[in-house]
Design a protein that fits this description.
Elements lengths: L38 E4 L3 H19 L7 E4 L3 H9 L3 H17 L4 E3 L9 H4 L10 H11 L4 E5 L2 H5 L2 H8 L3 E3 L3 H13 L8 H16 L4 E4 L17 E3 H14 L2
Parallel strand pairs: 1-2, 1-3, 4-5, 4-6, 6-7
């Protein structure tokens, strides 16, 4: 499926700091316009990053020809390093890890960056003013897709840190969209499933059933779509098994990056 929304600009809603993903860069003035831009993946957890990487490579063929895709470089610090900082609620330190990835990816030739991890987007305000490269914002990508598809009230699901943050509320309200957070007990159990199972490559039928129950309740509460706001959730949930239409943050980000890579 080809999304209908446009690639978003980076930054928090209304912010002018940082670089835009569509901002021309001086070192690109002599770029061969037939060559896709080199995509850098600043990864956090392996499963979500792997799904994003696979999507870039597989779906690139529909745009570039059989077996073709843009050049992609991935940098992944240890997830334990991220979790140590997240657990102490130190988002500036999370941002430092993201910046370290950004510099390594720039040195490898990347021309813009994506982060297939919703939770650590909380650190983007610390990252953007100092980043050597522009970023696409996953929440803005998802919000654009939700608006394009005519959704109005979204079930917001992900880790407990993501659900409690303003990463998605800022992006959704900027588009005139409403959202509903899970109940505290639901959020805690979904976060446990994500961090104890999904990021470890464990996909259990009981986890699918739990997400289905939560989405069914949120549908009854008036939601018309579900944000899969953890990049591992699409590994167990999709339109095929969800009571609500789904917004797959992982694949939507990858598709936005493909469009950005091929833009003039």
């Amino acid at each position: 499926m080809t999304p209908t929304c446009c690639s978003p600009i980076v930054g928090t809603t209304g912010s002018t700091v940082g670089k835009r993903a569509d901002e021309p860069r001086p070192r690109r003035m002599k770029r061969d316009l037939m060559t896709p831009r080199h995509i850098g993946i600043a990864a956090c957890s392996a499963e979500g990053a792997a799904l994003c990487y696979r999507t870039l490579c597989v779906e690139g063929a529909a745009l570039l020809g059989r077996h073709a895709h843009p050049e992609v470089t991935v940098h992944t610090p240890s997830l334990a390093d991220y979790m140590e900082r997240i657990d102490r609620d130190d988002w500036a330190a999370v941002g430092e890890l993201m910046l370290a990835s950004a510099h390594k990816l720039e040195a490898a030739g990347a021309e813009f960056l994506i982060c297939p991890d919703n939770t650590i987007h909380q650190a983007l305000p610390y990252v953007l003013p100092r980043s050597p490269l522009p970023w696409l914002n996953i929440a803005e990508v998802v919000a654009g897709e939700a608006a394009a598809r005519g959704f109005r009230r979204l079930a917001l699901t992900g880790t407990r840190w993501l659900v409690a943050s303003e990463v998605y509320p800022d992006a959704l309200t900027a588009r005139g969209l409403e959202y509903l957070r899970p109940a505290p007990a639901e959020c805690a159990e979904m976060s446990r499933i994500i961090m104890d199972e999904l990021v470890c490559g464990l996909f259990k039928p009981e986890a699918v059933e739990y997400f289905q129950r939560v989405y069914a309740r949120m549908k009854a509460a008036g939601c018309d779509a579900a944000v899969l706001g953890c990049t591992e959730i699409p590994l167990i949930m999709s339109d095929a098994n969800s009571p609500l239409p789904t917004l797959d943050s992982t694949r939507l980000l990858a598709r936005a990056a493909l469009r950005r890579s091929l833009a003039p």
